[in-house]
Amino acid sequence: MRENRQAMVDKLTYWTGVQRPLIKRLVQAIESKVDELGLRSEVKCEKEHLTEVSVYATALAMNYLARGKFVQS
C-alpha cells in the first residue's frame, strides 16, 4: 500500500471530492491497520487487493460526504 499511497490519495480526492488532508489521513489509517495486523499479499494478488482497498476507501469517503463521518454509528 505504501508504494501506491500517493496515487490512491490523488484519485480518491479527485473522484470523491473529499478534501485531500482527510483522504490522506484515511489512507494512512488503513495502511497503519494493515501494518498492525501484519497483513500481506502475494504478488500475484496485489492488484486485486489494492483495488479492493481502493473501493473500500471510496465507499468510506462517500459515506463521509453523505453523513459527515466515515462509519455509521
CA distance, first residue to last residue:
27 Å
Shape: globular
Order of helices and strands: HHH
Instruction: Tell me the number of strands.
Output: 0
How helix-rich are the residues, as a percent range? over 70%
Mean pLDDT: 91
Q: What percent strand? A: under 5%
Low-confidence stretches: none
State Rg.
Answer: 12 Å
Oligomeric state, counting identical vs distinct chains: single chain
Main sheet characteristics: none
Description:
It is built from three helices and no strands. With 73 residues, the chain is mainly alpha-helical. The protein is globular and about 35 Å long. Helix 1 crosses helix 2 and helix 1 runs parallel beside helix 3.
Task: Record keyword descriptors for this entry.
73 residues, mainly alpha, 3 helices
Question: Concise description?
Answer:
This protein is mainly alpha-helical and 73 residues long. It is built from three helices and no strands. Helix 1 packs across helix 2 and helix 1 runs parallel beside helix 3.
Topology at a glance:
Layout: H1 5-16, H2 20-37, H3 46-67
Helix pairs in contact: 1-2, 1-3
